[in-house]
Amino acid sequence: MDAILLQILNGLDKGSAYALIALGLTLIFGTLGVVNFAHGALFMIGAFCAVTLQRILNISTVTIDETKKDFLGRPLEVKTPVVESWFGPDLGGAIIDWSVPLAILLAIPVMLLIGFIMERGLIKHFYKRPHADQILVTFGLAIVLQEIIKAWYGANPIPTPAPDVFAGSLDIGALLGLDAVLAYPYWRLIYFAFSALIIGLVFAFLQFTTFGMVVRAGMADRETVGLLGIDIDRRFTIMFGIAAAVAGLAGVMYAPINSPNYHMGMDFLVLSFVVVVVGGMGSMPGAVLAGFLLGILESFASMNEIKYFLPGIDQIIIYLVAIAILLTRPRGLMGRKGVMED
């Protein structure tokens, strides 16, 4: 039971990242009809927002401490973060320690701006072009963004720790009354809760706000909404920015789980597109459902007991499930008729 519960938790952890990225992909495809292969790069940029803020907060001033000497008898240089000089060692140290959650405040405007620039500067020119053209140009953009990150930050992963208070693990076994010790990292649980919150906010925004209702109407019948005098294009541009922000926030909070590197966007991109296709192109509930479902299946397939009988199954399980689902349900789990069937 404890092994099964552990794999479910691991699956929810992976599924959270898949679901958030796939949700942003589906938002873009559902509103603009664009297959955005640069979406994984937005996830990567979000992670590097956390890296950037951490570096900014660790900018230090150097002073000479005459009371301390090195082994040659020379005064030691003391580096003090500027934040600690401004706010004191306690508050300044806490700000540095909480750099990853605080990076959310940086990532939101940055990702919104990048989303607006991408949509207005490039994507809008490919609305009526074939999906193959959209894939090629956005994939090329993803490579460009990836190489920019590589040139600026280097090729090696950059450790980005979570706040110290979340550095340990929670004994879920004791919490559930199990005899076995089942420790699970606090930050992974927080990431799952954060993902559920973001997903809930996106659905609530689309379901219960006037803006969201107009967007959903535009997704169903863009021409009719335009005839009512509503600037649906402007609203769709805003939705592209929101989708970029969702991917960026997913990357920010994922930074302590997997140290940011320049190719992390590509690592998630293909899997996230599989999630979107399995869930059903254009279906946001389907994308979320498929994200968590495939995350859990991948987690169970990575168990040593499974890999002993089926070596390498953890590398292909998602694709096998995708094939099986699409053979029986060509539109995916919750796909809509007429989407990408022309």
UniProtKB/TrEMBL annotation:
Record keyword GTP-binding present: no
PANTHER family in the cross-refs: ABC TRANSPORTER ATP-BINDING PROTEIN, BRANCHED-CHAIN AMINO ACID TRANSPORT SYSTEM PERMEASE PROTEIN LIVH
Record-level GO cellular component terms: plasma membrane
Gene Ontology terms: biological process: amino acid transport
Residues that span the membrane, as ranges: 15-35, 42-64, 95-114, 135-153, 165-184, 191-215, 235-256, 268-296, 308-327
Protein family membership: Belongs to the binding-protein-dependent transport system permease family. LivHM subfamily.
Topology relative to the membrane: Multi-pass membrane protein
Domain of life: Bacteria
Compartments (UniProt record): Cell membrane
Stated name of the protein: Branched-chain amino acid ABC transporter permease
Annotated keywords: Amino-acid transport, Cell membrane, Membrane, Transmembrane, Transmembrane helix, Transport
Entry GO MF terms: transmembrane transporter activity
Classification lineage: Bacteria, Pseudomonadati, Pseudomonadota, Alphaproteobacteria, Rhodobacterales
